[in-house]
Amino acid sequence: MKFSTHEKRMRHPLAKLIPQILWETLFVNELPNYLIPLMQEHDEHLLNQLIDEARPKRPYFTTDMLRMWLVIVLSHPELTTESLQQIADRIGMTDQMLFHAAVLWGNKNYFKYLMKQYSKSSLKYMITENNYHLFIQSAQRGDLYIFNKISQILRPKLQQMIEAKEFSAFKLAAENGHLSILKFLAEKAPEKLQQMILADNFFALRRSVEKGHLSVLKFLVEKASEKQQEMYAVYHLLFRIAAAVGHLSILQFFAEKSKDNLQEMISSGNYSAFKVAAAAGHLSVLQFLTEKAPDELPEMIKANNYFAFRHAAINGYLPVVQYLAEIAPEKLQEMIAAQNYASFRCAAADGRLSVIKYLSENAHDILQDMIEADNYGVIRGALQREKETHLINYLLSIAHAFAFADQHYNEYFVQVSLFVTNKLSELQLQKRTVEQENPYAVFDITNPDESKLLFYILRNLIRQNDPARRDDILFLLNIPSVKALAHTEVTPHKSNELLRLALSLENESAAEILMGIPAVREMAVQNNFYRLEQQSGLDLQALAQDRESAMTALTQGEQQRLKKGINYYKPMLKQASVQFIMEELYAMLAQLYEQNPASITILNQDHATTIVLPLHWEELQNLHLGEPVYHEALKAYYQHKAHSAWRYLSKPNPWMHEHASYVYVNPYNTQEKWSTFEEYQSLISMLYLAVLDKTMPCLDNHTFESRLEHFINELAFIGRAHNWDTTRSIIAGNGDVITQEFDDLEGDRPSCFSGVKRRLFQSVLDHPFFMILTEDIIKQEIREFVRQHFKDSIDDKNRNAIKTAWEKGILLEERTNEDWAALNAIDICQEKLDAFIRSLKNKYDKEQLVFFIPYIKNKFALNPDKEFQRAHLLKFGYLHLEELFESNCQKKEKNQSELQGLNQFGLFAPGEPLSTLEHSTPRWQNE
């Protein structure tokens, strides 16, 4: 068992029992797995058995025996000396080994006991063995009592012991911080002290600095040679070592010790101390050096082509990278670019995700160069290491990196496909969240880099040439910012890249969808449908002329639900052409308007003048109306259904609001704007045919006239959908205060892409082929069903208990079993849910409903592991079911109180009926 850090080892209940010196020297930073059962067992009989079983499946070395005996005694402090001897015998240890183990253990009492078990001659022999190895080991272990005892046994040979193995006792005592041992040796051999300090190229000094033993260092420096010039060179070395290992206190000691020489130590080796401290991540050392040599900072940072920054990044030390960027912001791009963007490339190669994120986010201007460095070395290296999923996903989230991977799709198929699938799922979730919070909100991506990434994901979907990806392509193109890029040069010198790729791959489905985007289609026309570069069998001009052959704006699920209508009216569409039908619809709307035009009445003293408003914008301008009258005229247009529908289909539409979203703008005249209707012309045409088709009977007592009127109203609403985004409070006829949406009567703000389809699906009233079931309809059915269920289930008998359980969630109090019993008692049972689904089957087309049954069941599924999903009342809490907790008497009192409060501000007269307010259709009634 290995541990990546000392802290992790110290958190392990067994490994932490081993002293650090033994962990490093005897165990070599690893606890063999076969020793763990020995440390866990407390029965001596079983312990003996385990010793036999734990013997390594190889020759049994002295080191193995020492480890086994030591882990047992360290984990079993209650063992007697007799037991320890028995364990040693069981392991097969000699007296020499056991004595050695006792020295390593450092237990004074056991060492005393063992000393008595051997003769003096035996002890001398064991200590002399292997060039006084036990003497050296006792100095390394640092127990002064044991060290003294061993020294006394061979007192005549003390000088030889001190000199053994190039003064190893002195060196190892210094390395491990045993100052008392060093003083003992210095006292016993003062004439050899300089040799001890100089031994092995100042080993004692170097290792005391590396290990951070400041007291030992001070002792050695005090005793060292007085040859200043010689020691200054050593101080430079030790200063760099201290910086490399991050021992700030030692650096401070040298700074105080050699004040006059400090600047030279800092600049030594081309600012080596600064460089190695950065490479090792020692922020406090960098701050110390910066403080001591502020004038040298530019040179320290620049040394060896920004070595400090590069190696801090490569080694993953984000705080150091941030610090260097903070103190030299003007050099950040140079630091990143050094050695062909080595900091970025090598950090990625070592999986330093946090550093990669920081560099990407703070050097946006050169991010493309960073990605392209070394022939896209960063992305190539990451994609070849499949386990680095977090790094791969982050890099692929950078548009330029994904573009490279997409161009090598066959090579990186697995990673790219997985990323695309996950990204699309993430986007779908974001879209659902946005729409749950506001059903009329438009899901869009505001970050240009993210939009660019989605463009390349769209390119990848087209490259896959898989019919199953059609809905994903539509989904991305329904995101306004992505759609706006469809024809542009996202990749330099590659305009209309998506369409041209679809053509080259003969991806007819993608080509059809893209040709439904006016800007894409216009550019294709301008370039003669790319005939010169085509090698595929697709006839793009034919697609442009025959776009009604497929409902390109519809997903596969939507096409399935419209299957009957599409199959029935498709031949008529082809025969008459979409263009002709749209022209007929446009002319019909103009005729309806002229038969019943909008008008305004002007009062001039006692005389009233009625002005009939013309159909066209230019004619309106020719009336030269004054500002107040002109403003009223515009309002009249906005309220006229036929004219609003006509404007929705106009290109351009001069009545468009100057800040309208989801519209097309003429790049040569930005005053000209129009809606996105062109993309839905085939669908609108088919629905118009259905509206006019008198061979199809009207259902539910509707008429052909009401069917046409409803269709026009829906087109009018699509043209002004976002003019209904504001709300107001009104008093209903029963005295209730309700919130109502209303038309702001400003310039046209048409619907977003998804909203267009939603409205069109419900634009044909009671046609046998177009009873189109949508998710919005299902949601409304569920809302009504749930509210009615709880309205029937909550009464005076259970109201207080349910209200108490509900309010505990608001107050963040823990619910009791009685609370849950009260909530679950009114859950919707399976029988009632089944009855609800059967009622929907009777009401709607079964073939359409089958798509929504899993959705319905999931809506009612409970999850005991999630607080808000343990009871239906909590799961559907967003329907404001708390209103049902009040009795009729309480509701009446509350309504009267609210009414009095609003009347204080003069918002409306008491008891004013709903019918007296401005007639307008709230959007929620149509949605």
Automatic annotation (TrEMBL):
SUPFAM superfamilies: Ankyrin repeat (SSF48403), Pseudo ankyrin repeat-like (SSF140860). InterPro entries: Ankyrin_rpt (IPR002110), Ankyrin_rpt-contain_sf (IPR036770), SecEffector_AnkRepeat (IPR052050). It comes from the Bacteria. This is Ankyrin repeat protein. The lineage of its organism: Bacteria, Pseudomonadati, Pseudomonadota, Gammaproteobacteria, Legionellales.
